[in-house]
Design goal:
By secondary structure, the protein is mainly alpha-helical. It is about 50% helix and about 10% strand. The protein has a three-stranded mixed sheet, with helices on one face. β1 and β2 form a beta hairpin. α2 packs antiparallel against α3. It is elongated and about 85 Å long. The chain starts with a helix and ends in a 7-residue tail after the last helix.
Amino acid sequence: MEESSKNFVKPVNHTVLPTEPFTETEMLIQWNNYAKKLGNKGYRIMESLLLINDPKLNGTEITIELPNEGSKLDFESEKIGLLGHLRGHLHNHDITIEVIVNETMENKRSLNDQDRYNRLLEINPNIELLRTTFGLDVNA
């Protein structure tokens, strides 16, 4: 009976997925195309997350830096669609995406004169001496 059971084993079908090389420029074009496609469908938040900064390419791993965990969660919800788009258009199924949260990105806000002065004062307390010696006004 053992011999007859061997006849019923299905042959394994190994599908070879494409792994063509691509450049960072080609990846960025497809990344931006996908972002535009989302924007045209009304997914403006996702579009802005994809365009918040340029992703970096290392081999077949794409790294994107996002400002907080919330944006990472939003991005993760769209990651499968983005991967499918990139893998299909770049003809490479080894592509992966890694998300890095960089909280300091949020601090890149516009500063007023007082904020700038306070920051410089933290770096060098002698600025206060200069300001008083020369009668300088921060808001002038």
